[in-house]
Design goal:
Distance between the termini: 19 Å
Number of helices: 10
Oligomer: single chain
CATH superfamily: Alpha/Beta hydrolase fold, catalytic domain
Mean pLDDT: 95
Radius of gyration: 17 Å
Order of helices and strands: EEEHEHEHEHHHHEHEHH
Number of strands: 8
């Protein structure tokens, strides 16, 4: 089987969307959605593992990576509609959907509003964005925003803001983050603001597909939300990836891919 990762563009009404794919085109499809402000590269090493059994597709969220942005403010709803547009462009009626951090929030919107297009959900390190979450987020400083400086010190600041949430001895992961952050069209903080505005309370009750909650124990942003998700979705399965931190998919790609594959094989 050819497990090469191949990159493509799809033409959507707003512009081109970039995605990478791996696996048999006839296999059940799984759509992978990345965190902010990353790109499909977050799943570069996950794709070949999933591609052994599935048609794995990792898209650049519109406005990130090489995907053209939508007009107007960034929003979870708009990003989900663009993901549906990609499924349409690829001729896919339904797909499994995997989302990490912001990608998980987009996945919730897909499952709740476009549920007929979703076979199952994998919510990895996904926050539950209710009113207390929105209030708390509004009181916190920006996550990734840095002010550009003529001598380039802002690049070091961007690195250091994330360093404590990444594993020691893995500068490759931080470098991948910085490179993706520099490619964002416009506001690097726009994705975080979109999450902070998203009203998830009315959406969760509309999730009626098999769901896996992936827990990264060493992710201080998302780990506390696992208990909330277990309460909200008592029928969901839970898988914990030991040592998992903020960059889970490219930090531990084999372990991440395996828990996803184990779950999806039961739904295919």
């Amino acid at each position: 089987m050819d497990l090469a990762v191949r990159r493509h563009f799809a033409d959507l009404p707003h512009g081109q969307v970039h995605y990478a794919a791996c696996g048999d085109p006839a296999a059940p499809p799984v759509l992978l959605l990345h965190q902010t402000p990353r790109s499909w590269l977050e799943y570069a090493q996950v794709l070949p593992v999933l591609g052994t059994r599935l048609r794995a597709i990792a898209m650049d969220t519109v406005g990130f990576g090489d995907s053209a942005p939508l007009a107007g403010p960034a929003s979870i709803e708009g990003w989900a509609r663009a993901a549906v547009g990609l499924l349409d462009a690829l001729g896919l009626d339904r797909a499994h959907v995997v989302g990490h951090h912001t990608g998980g929030v987009i996945a919730v919107e897909l499952g709740a509003v476009h549920g007929q297009r979703v076979r199952s959900l994998v919510l990895s390190s996904t926050p539950y964005t209710n009113e207390p979450f929105r209030v708390a987020r509004a009181q916190r400083p920006p996550i990734d925003a840095v002010e550009a400086s003529p001598d380039g010190d802002h690049l070091t600041e961007l690195w250091r803001k994330r360093q404590g949430f990444y594993p020691q001895g893995r500068p490759d992961l931080l470098q991948a983050f910085v490179l993706d952050a520099l490619k964002v069209r416009g506001d690097v903080e726009g994705g975080h603001r979109a999450v902070a505005r998203y009203e998830m309370e009315g959406k969760v009750s509309r999730l009626h597909v098999p769901t896996l909650i992936v827990h990264a124990p060493d992710d201080p942003f998302a780990s506390p939300h696992t208990a909330e998700w277990q309460h909200l979705l008592p029928q969901a399965q839970v898988a914990s990836v030991a040592g998992g931190m903020v960059p889970l998919p490219d930090q531990l790609p084999q372990a991440f891919a395996q828990v996803v594959l184990d779950f999806l094989e039961g739904q295919a």
